[in-house]
Amino acid sequence: MSLTLDLSRTSAAVSTAPVNLSGLTRGELRQALIDAGICPPEKAKMRASQVWSWIHHYGVTDFSLMTNIGKEVQAKLAEAFTLARPEIVERQVSKDGTRKWLIRTAPGIEIETVYIPDVGRAGALCVSSQVGCTLNCTFCHTGTQKLVRNLTAAEIVAQVQVARDDLGEWPSPKEDRRLSNIVFMGMGEPLYNLDHVANAIDIISDNEGIALSRRRITVSTSGVVPQLDALGTRTQAMLAISLHATNDALRDVLVPLNKKYDLDQLMAAIRAYPGLSNARRVTFEYVMLKGVNDSPEEARALLSLIKGIPAKINLIPFNPWPGTDYECSDWKTIERFAAILNKAGYASPIRTPRGRDILAACGQLKSESEKIRASLRRAGQAAAAGTVEAA
After folding, report:
1. Contacts by 244-251 with C-beta closer than 8 Å and gap 24+?
2. Which of 56, 110, 298, 331 has the fewest CB atoms within 10 Å, measured from its CB?
3. Per-residue pLDDT tens for 40-72?
4. Minimal CA–CA distance to 134: which of 199, 196, 190?
5. Residue 67: burial class (beta carbons within 10 Å; 0-12, 13-18, 19+)
6. Beta partners for 311?
7. Residue 284 belongs to what H/E stretch?
8. How far apart (Å, rounded) are the C-alpha atoms in residues 191 and 220?
9. Strands 87-93, 123-126: parallel, antiparallel or unpaired by DSSP?
């Protein structure tokens, strides 16, 4: 049973736009070509394979560049479909090499995507699954932005395409990739948009296209328990859990979704996650909040909570934002916490904050840039009003 949020009322603009073939699975692409009269059913598999390769291996955005397809068919494709990339509203590069793109996929629909070098095998792309978020995690600035709607598979795949355009990774390299990992850790809760997330993963992992291994694709969830089995079964993606607390009383505050799916339910679902093993460990994400969840007692409680689960723990120094009541734990406190976990045999890397100077660090996406852009708009409106008053 899918828990994909019904946001059709706010997604009307998407449905009236030309279909972007980038967001169709192989089966959907074959059917779309048949329905549009591009080719008869008996030739659809071959034609779809050709189009697929041009889109996802070569990264073309113009049907006329598909040189093994006749010009008449190219014209039909261009009339019925689009391959257009979304608008890049802003591109920023951090002093540490992190890149951030503010992407507009439709009027009023803006998302942020971040490329972090030297993460995973070579570099990781943090993608968003929703515009805004419903979870209201109290330590997360991104969560202060209200949910607008789910992203389509095309809008999720487009984030990967934009990054690969910028990194110069077309055609898809077999080796020496700069973008080697995908993490669904951007805006939104992926398991509330599982259908589109699963389709996007199918597209991204296809061996004749972008060809990223599913073991290099990680989906992070705050704990939508009923969807965990479906996530593993449908995507075979690596699982990350936004945990941050070891007891229900504290997690109810930090991650309000815990009131619906408590830790007992969550841990049982994690233990049953399809494919979980020492080779496919779950990642627990744990933001370090000064005086809240960073004591040695909490570290030992964490070990008790995850006992027997093949896992690693990412310790995330809190990234402050205006108006928050939380502070980042002292570095010595974080190291002491990590040492307790390491001694028990769990890998517990301390995540180095990346891209803070361009507001690209964990928990900073979109909401802060939205605030800045709104401030600039207000300043511009005030200046215009002053000009009119002076006249």
Report:
1. 244/137, 244/139, 244/285, 244/286, 244/287, 244/289, 244/293, 245/293, 246/293, 246/298, 246/301, 246/302, 246/304, 246/305, 247/301, 250/292, 250/293
2. 331
3. 999 999 999 999 999 999 999 999 999 999 999
4. 190
5. exposed
6. 282
7. strand 282-288
8. 9
9. unpaired
Are 158 and 103 in contact by the 8 Å Cβ rule? The answer is yes
DSSP 75-125: HHHHHHEE-PPPEEEEEEE-TTS-EEEEEEEETTEEEEEEEEETSTTSEEE
Catalytic site positions:
112, 362
Question: What's the whole-number average pLDDT of the chain?
Answer: 88
Q: How far apart are CA 372 and CA 362, in angstroms?
A: 18
CA dist 322 → 101, 197, 363 (Å):
22, 31, 12
DSSP string across 349-376: PBPPP--GGGT-STT-TTHHHHHHHHHH
Within 13 Å of residue 166, how many CA atoms lie on the same side as its CB? 22
d(Cα 171, Cα 162) in Å, to the nearest integer?
A: 14
> Looking up tokens 């660090």, which residue turns up?
361
Q: Which amino acid is residue 234, in one-letter code? A: R
As averages over each run of 10 residues, the pLDDT of the chain (391 residues) reads 46 63 98 97 97 98 97 97 96 92 92 89 92 79 76 97 97 90 94 97 97 96 97 97 97 95 98 96 97 98 97 93 88 97 96 64 51 49 43 37
Sheet with 311-317: strands ordered across: 87-93, 99-106, 109-117, 123-126, 181-184, 217-221, 238-242, 282-288, 311-317
Integer CA distances (angstroms), 340 to 146, 221, 300, 335, in order: 38, 25, 7, 9
CA 14, CA 17: separation in Å to the nearest integer? 6
Are β-strands 149-150 and 130-131 bridged in parallel, bridged antiparallel, or unpaired? antiparallel
How long a stretch of residues is the chain?
391
How many degrees, rounded to 5, is the angle at CA 382 between CA 381 and CA 385?
Answer: 85
> Which residue(s) pair with 149 in the sheet?
131
Q: How far apart are CA 276 and CA 159, in angstroms?
A: 28
Query: Tokens 């898809």 label which residue?
Result: 172
* C-beta separation of 282 from 270 below 8 A: yes
Question: Would the pTM count as exceeding 0.85?
Answer: yes
Reported as type and span, the H/E element at residue 235 is: helix 225-235
